[in-house]
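In this supplementary section we document a worked example of the pipeline. Step one takes a protein sequence of length 101 as its only input; no multiple sequence alignment statistics are reported here. Step two produces a three-dimensional model, which step three serialises into structure tokens for compact storage. The input and output of this example are shown verbatim.
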Amino acid sequence: MTITNLAIGNRIAVIVLTLVLVIGGLIAYVSIPKEAEPEIEFATIVVTTVYPGASPDDIESIITQEIEREVVSVDGIDDLRSISSESVSTVVIEFTPDVDV
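The serialised model returned by step three reads:
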């Protein structure tokens, strides 16, 4: 007798076992202490600016470089990256871990 024939022959038992496992899993998930899932804050800010119809060179000179000039004066910056593409400027600012975002 294969396992499928056994499951079909005892389908009520299979349904009850499945429900017990699902309910037990939900109870275990809800009762997990919060210390097991600590809240992690990443000190990263992303600034995305859209300027429709502008070329990547225009985006870089008009928007990206201006944002970088203003942001670089902020204390606690660990890394500053930027991407200028057609119509979109994205500046990623990563802070040191001790900075309160």
